[in-house]
Amino acid sequence: MTEWAVMGEQVTAAQLATTLRHAITRLNRRVRQARPVGDLTVTQLSALTSLELAGAMSPRELADVERVQPPTMTKIVAKLEERGLVRRTPHPTDGRQVILSTTEPGREVIARFERIRDEWLAIRLAALSPDDRGTLRRAAEILQQVASD
Which pLDDT does position 1 carry in this prediction? Predict the structure, then answer.
């Protein structure tokens, strides 16, 4: 079993993986909670963000990305479309399907949520020491590297 010294303490790869996963999960949950009350649900915002990141996709593809059943995604898309955040266009090769994409108001909603989340996190980071912020900057680089492998 692989073992490292982390901050003077012996830690196995499995222990580090568990600790890191828990920390990332908790941070993600807290960042996701930093949103205006009464706006989109977390599920709707996630679907809208996935759609924006992909550019455009079919409802089935979006359901797969979001790991929900197609009937659930149909309801989510209907709510987003009702609010003018998503548009449907005919599929270029399959007349039975549609392609979903975000609208300008949808992109504005995503930008607003990202701004709120970034502000929430920036306040917490500002309370840390310069050394801790430097460590987190390096950790962010490393996590990007791990995620891209």
Answer: 56
